[in-house]
Structure formats: structure tokens, C-alpha cells
Amino acid sequence: MTDDATTGAAPVLVEAKGVHKRYGSNLVVRGIDMTVRTGEVMCLLGPSGSGKSTFLRCINHLEKIDAGTISVGGELVGYRRQGDRLHELRDAEIATRRSEIGMVFQQFNLFPHMTVLENLVEAPVQVRRESVKSARERARALLDVVGLADKADAYPRSLSGGQQQRVAIARALTMRPKLMLFDEPTSALDPELVGEVLDVMRGLAADGMTMIVVTHEIGFAREVADTVTFMDGGVVVESGPPEQVLRAPQHERTRSFLAKVL
Amino acid sequence: MTSRSGTDVDGGGTTMTEDRGIDGDAVRVVPVRRYGQWLATIVVLVVAGLVVTSLITNPRYQWSLVFSYLFNAQIVEGLGTTLWLTVVAMVVGVVIGIVMALARESRNLVVAAAASVYIAFFRGTPLLVQLIFWFNLAALYPVISLGVPFGPTLFSESTNVLITPFLAAVLGLGLNEGAYMSEIVRAGLQSVDSGQTDASHALGMRKSQTFRRIVLPQAMRVIIPPTGNETISMLKTTSLVSVIAIPELLWQAQAIYSRTYQVIPLLITVSLWYLVVTTVLSMGQYYLERHFTRGDSRRPERSLLGTIVHGLVPRHAAVRRPATTDVQDEGTRS
Ligand SMILES: Nc1ncnc2c1ncn2[C@@H]1O[C@H](COP(=O)(O)OP(=O)(O)OP(=O)(O)O)[C@@H](O)[C@H]1O
Ligand SMILES: [Mg+2]
């Protein structure tokens, strides 16, 4: 199922090279190289402000990068390469590439003016021009997977945080993404609701979904991740299998971070 | 009206004098006596009584005339023109408002600056002056022609033919309204959390789809209430175009009383019509607001009647901003 990055068997899905991102004069991501293989689950750890969210948002081009490249499935997400030049893609082309990358946010970001089912039907119908009927069927099936089949007609506001986040995961899955990005999906949840969301994510990982998960849930990382990457100050400090990075970190910064969160 | 101090405390419908009959050890609650409220009530009732008496007994109101003019052909025609003007001016205003709101947020500084200048100009000069200006545009540009800038002319027409009084009125009212609407639209757009755009883009929706399907519908619940007020205000503002001889409601009334000298009855007739239409518009606003607050557990508690009264009472242009707390709400809910 989930090939270890070390076996080198599975093809590379995400490849970041020398990624830089600045806000004004604030250089937030300072040269990140990263490889994620198909089926791999990577957990990104790091202190607040280390640029985890920013890097994640660069992967689906919600943020423009200032230097370096990120490719997903062999294609640069926001650009077309011509010789040694990168041309930024037009809005419609970027949207098409983004639609193959699912993203789940800390604050869920469900569309509050739509019911749960409408949230799930929106993108397949608007972006993929699927028929409403088939989009609905698929939406109901996905709601079933996340255990919320009975909430199809509810509005997001009437759901608990954990339920909203499960809907958000289902919504991302409606586009049949080849990669899922999670930005602290359980950080906004009450402790007793964290488990139900992590369970859904575990299920996804077991089904072979490629996932990059920014999280503070060390337990989840230890159990589910194939690779744990520790970031600080906009760079990758160390990266490797969880037993190595979490049990026997090589770097002092990793050690002191783990000492704080564990 | 005056039972308020009694129900505040027990709320259960028992009046203060009745609780003597209850069990011996029942403790009687004596609400704070609000002498000020009693005084205010008496003053209001006395004034209202005087007004009503005067309305009924002063023959110079000529109520029979007021009602006989209500469905006068000229008046009804004027009412139609007023309604039509209101609708067209508001449509123009809303469209311009959306365009200007987007232009102001544009990354193109020239576009953003142009929008700001537009808004400053139209908000900073009196509407009456603008209306007369449009009406007299021919004095400035006797001929309007369309063509390639600094190149050949494709179309040319006398300004007085092109800018009819009605078009001058629509231009004046619509362009002016657009400046105000752009502020309302902007506040609405800003009230939508940026996470909504992120989520929509992440799903592969294009910018235009995101705007149309995700941002605008959510902005609507902030945009609708002040737009309703603007519409009601516009209905009344159209009376200004009587100065450029548009035969709307007020102009028609003036046309009649300049012949018959029945000034007061006709002004009352006109006022009654304005009142009727603003009331109907307020009802429409109530249902629109309800539609656009779907999924919002904090639906306005206001009743239909409350909305109507609210719509008729002038308000300052402050815009409701419910969204600032939304994110935290969702984040911390259990
Ligand atoms: N839109 C923005 N404009 C300006 N600065 C930003 C913006 N977004 C993030 N930053 C800055 O970039 C730095 C990294 O932010 P980022 O959100 O990527 O960190 P993070 O590792 O995700 O932290 P956290 O664990 O708190 O989510 C921070 O210093 C932040 O203030
Ligand atoms: Mg973050």
C-alpha cells in the first residue's frame, strides 16, 4: 500500500526545489527541497511561524513563490516552463491543476450559505461540469465514508467542529485529488473531537492517498506518517521516517521542539 | 402600551395587583417605578391627540380632495414614472457599485485611483447640482460622437437628442447611487472571510466562479439591508428630478396644483403614495434578508412589522459586519 520513500518504488508525486517565498521584506520560506512519493504520507512539524502553512499554500499555488519550483505529478502548478523561463499560467489553467490537489484548512472553510450536500456538489458541477445527479450520488457516498450521511441537508453552522472538518475532507475528495494537503486540520477542534477527524485521515492514508499534513499531533505522525519533516525558520531542518525524526532527532532544534510538544 | 414595567419582572401575565391572592408566603416583587416613562407616555398621547384632532377638524386639509386625487390619472402616471425611475436608477447604481467596488480593490493602481476619484466626485457634490448638470450637458458638449480616439468618427448626434431628460435623470441618479453602492458592496465583500476564497480556489474554481458562487452570495447578507434602505431612499430622492421636468409623482402633483391651487391636499396625496410604496419595499426587504441569511443561525429576529418600521426610520449609513467573529465562532464551537 504505502510504499516507503526509502524503497524508491513509487513514483515521485511532489517535488519542491529551492522554494522561496517572501511577504514584503519578510523571507518566510528560504529554500525548501522536498520529495513526496505517490501514496506517501508526510507530516510537517515545526514551531509557529516557521512557514509550514505558507509552504503548503505554495504547493497548490494559493501563494506565488518567489524562487524555486514545485511540481505535482510532473507539472509545475502555477507555471509553464519554456526553455529556462517560467511563464505564469492563466487563471483557468491554474484552477484546473489545483482541482487535482485537495486542501483541508484549520478553519474548515465550508461554504456557510450552502447545505452540506451543496458544499460537496459545487466544485464537481462548476469545475468538472459533472451532472448534478451524478455529483449528488458521489457526494452522498463520500458523506457516508466520513460518517455524515444523515447531515446532507444540514447547514455547516449547525454541525460540530469535528463534523464540519469531516465534511471539508469529503468536499476535497469530490474532486478525486491525487494529493491531499492538510493544514492543522484538528487545531481548531475541542480535544474530544480530534479523534473522529484523525480517524477519517487514517482511513484515507490506508486507502493509499498521498498526503502532506501540517500537524501538531505527534501521535498521529508517529503512527500514520511515512516521513516526518521538521521545519524551522523557513527551512527543512531534518526529514526522515518517524521513528528516526521523532525518537532520535539529529538536530538540537528538533529536539527542543519535540520536548515542548510532547 | 404602558404595561411594560409590569411584564418586565414577572413576564407571566399576572399584574401587580393580583398577586395578593397567592399563597401567604409569596413574596411580592415591586418593580422600579418608572415615572419618566409614564410622563413620556402622557406627553406622546396628548400630542398625538392634538394632531389627530387637528387632522380631523381642520377643514383646510380637504381630505375628500386628498382621496379623490389618489387615483387621478395624472397622479397614477406620475407614480409609474417614479417607480420606473427608482428601478432603473437602482439597477444602474448597483451595477456601477459592484464594478467600482471591484475596481477599488484592483491591483492596477490606475484603475483603483480612477474608482476612488469617481466615488469622491459623486459623493462630494450635491445630487441636485449633478442632475441639472446632466440636463444641461449640451451646453458643454453640443454634439456627442463616438469614434476611435484621435481618429475617425463612427457616430455623431446632437447631445439634446441623445440625452433626453429621462436619460439625464437616470444618469444623475444612477451615477450618484453607484458611488454610494460601491461603499456598501465593498463592505459586503470585505465581510467575507478570505478562507472562503482559499477553499474555493483550492477546489479548482476560477476567480469569476469564486466571486459569483461563493463570495457574492455571502456578501449579500451584508449588502442587502443597506441596499434596501438605499432603494427606499431612492424612491424619495426621485422627487428631485421634478426640477428637470420629468413627469414623476411630485411633478404631476405640482402640475395639477399650479392650475387648481390645491397645494396641501395634493402634497398629502403624494405623501400617501410614497408611504405606501416604501412600506411595500420594506416588506420586500424583509423577505430578501431572510433568503440571504440561509444557514446563518443568527437570523435577524426582527419581525415583518419591525423591518417595515425600521426601513421607514432614517438610519445612518453604517453597514452591519457580522463576519469578523465568524471564524472564531466556528473554530471554538464544541
Ligand atoms: N499573508 C501574509 N502576509 C504577510 N505575512 C504573512 C502572511 N502569511 C504569513 N505571514 C508570515 O509568514 C510567517 C510564516 O507564517 P506561516 O503561517 O506559514 O507559519 P506556520 O508555520 O504555519 O505557523 P503556525 O503554526 O502558527 O500556523 C509568519 O511570520 C507570518 O507572520
Ligand atoms: Mg500555519
From TrEMBL, chain A:
Pfam families: ABC_tran
Occurrences of domain ABC transporter (ranges): 14-258
Sequence intervals crossing the membrane: none
GO terms for MF: ATP binding; ATP hydrolysis activity; ATPase-coupled polar amino acid-transporter activity
First-level EC class: translocase
Swiss-Prot/TrEMBL keywords: ATP-binding, Cell membrane, Membrane, Nucleotide-binding, Transport
Cellular component terms (Gene Ontology): plasma membrane
InterPro entries: AAA+_ATPase (IPR003593), ABC_ATPase_HisP-typ (IPR030679), ABC_transporter-like_ATP-bd (IPR003439), ABC_transporter-like_CS (IPR017871), MetN_ABC_transporter-like (IPR050086), P-loop_NTPase (IPR027417)
Membrane topology, record value: Peripheral membrane protein
Record's keyword annotation contains Cell membrane: yes
Record's keyword annotation contains Signal: no
Location of this chain's protein in the cell: Cell membrane
SUPFAM superfamilies per the UniProt record, alphabetical: P-loop containing nucleoside triphosphate hydrolases
Annotated EC: 7.4.2.1
Catalytic activity, as annotated: a polar amino acid(out) + ATP + H2O = a polar amino acid(in) + ADP + phosphate + H(+)
PANTHER family per the UniProt record, alphabetical: AMINO ACID IMPORT ATP-BINDING PROTEIN (PTHR43166), L-CYSTINE IMPORT ATP-BINDING PROTEIN TCYN (PTHR43166:SF35)
Protein name in UniProt: ABC-type polar-amino-acid transporter
Origin organism lineage: Bacteria, Bacillati, Actinomycetota, Actinomycetes, Micrococcales
